[in-house]
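Anyone have C-alpha cells for Breast cancer type 2 susceptibility protein? Sequence:
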Amino acid sequence: WIIWKLKSYDEKLLRYFQNLTLTPLNVVNQIKYRYDIEIGQAKRSSIKKIIEKDDTCMNKTLILYISKILKSNNSLTSVELCDGWYPVKAQFDAYLSDYLRRGRIKLGDKLVLFSPELIGCPKDGCSPLEAPEEMFLKLSVNSTRKAKCFAKLGFLKPQRPVIASINSIKANSIVGAIDVLIERIYPIIYMEKKPDGSKIYRNQKQEDMLLYSKMIDIEESESNNKENRVENFEKKNFQTRIVTQILKIRICDFKYKNNYSCLVTFWQNGSDIYDKISEGERIMLFNLTANSHNIKEMECMMLQMCLWELIE
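Reply: yep, here.
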C-alpha cells in the first residue's frame, strides 16, 4: 500500500514536481513513520479499531479504497478494502456488484461508507492480520457513494451520514439515512399474532372494544375482589396475546425538490413515536430497509436498530 500510494503521487503530481516520490528511501521512511505512529504513539487506523472491537462502524461514516477484487459469487462480488494501513474483506450487494462489472466502480476507487455491517468478527475482536476468512463488511448501495480522489482515508471528520434521496433508493437494500418531511401520519394499526401463526389487524377502536369485552368477561367470571380481577386480566390478556403496534407515515425529501414520496413503517414503539411527531415536521431516519421496486409506492421498514431524530 505504501508503494501504491507513492506511485499514485508520481502519476498525478509528476507534471508539477520533477522528483519522483517512489524511491527506496521514501519507502523506508514511510515504514519508519508507520512504526512511530502505531507503536511509538499508540495510534491505530480505523479498520484496526473496528476489528479489535475498540470502535464501531455502526452509524459512522468512513472512507476506504478498493485494493483488490477477490471473487464473484452469483450476483454478489467480494472485494478487499483498505484504509492505507490494514485490509478488510467486503461483500457488495447486487447493485454494487453490477456497478463493478459495468466499470462505474473500479480498482483503486475510494468509497464513502455509512454504517457498514461487520459480519463474522470474533466477539472479543482480533488483529486485522489474524482475521478469520468468514469475516467481511456487508455494503449496501443506498449507503455507499464514490469519494473524491483526494479524500482522506479512515473515519470521516467531522462525522456526518450519507443521506440518500427517495428517488435514488434501491429495493431490498439497507438505507443508511434520509432527510425528509412528514406528509401524513396514519392511525396506529394493531397486529395480533395467533399461536397458529395467523395475524389479525385491528384499528384503535377495534382494539379498545376487544379489551373492553375481555374485561367484562373477566369481571363476570371472577370474584368481586378488585385485585384478583386486575391480576387475572393482566395474566390472561397481556401475557397470552402478542400484539404489535404498527405506525405508518408518508414522507417526501426535504432537500431534493421532486415529487417522490414513500411510506415508512415503524414496527416497534408505534404509540410512543406517534405522540412525538406531527405532520409537516422535518425528521431524519437511519437504518431502514426498502422492500419495493416501484419507487412511487416504495415502503421502507424501520429495522430493529433503527434511529430517528427530529430536526428543528
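The chain has seven helices and 15 strands.
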